[in-house]
Amino acid sequence: MLKVENLVAGYGKVQVLHGLSINVEDGQLVTLIGSNGAGKTTTLRALSGMIAPESGSITLGGKEISGLASHRITRLGLAHSPEGRRVFSTLSVEDNLLLGAFPRVTGARPKGDVQADRNRMFDLFPRLSERRTQLAGTLSGGEQQMLAMARALMLQPQVLLLDEPSMGLSPRLVEEVFSIIRRLKDAKVTMLLVEQFAAAALDVADFGYVLENGRLSTSGPAAELKNDPAVRAAYLGTAH
Amino acid sequence: MQILLQLIASGISVGMIYGVIAFGYQLTFATSKTLNFGQGEALTLGALVGLTTINFLIGQAIATPWAYLLMLPIVLAFGLLQGAVVELLGVRQAIKTNSEAGWIMATIALGIIFRNLAENIWGRDALRFPSPLPEQALSFGGIRIQPMEIAIVVGALLLMLLVELFNRKSIYGKAVVATANDRDAAGLMGINTRIVITFSYALSSMSAAFAGVLVAPITLTGATMGAVLGLKAFAVAIIGGLSSGAGVVVGGLILGIAETLTGYYIESGYKDVPGLVLLLLVLSLKPSGLFGKPTIKKV
Question: How many beta-carbon pairs under 8 angstroms link A with B?
Answer without folding.
Answer: 73
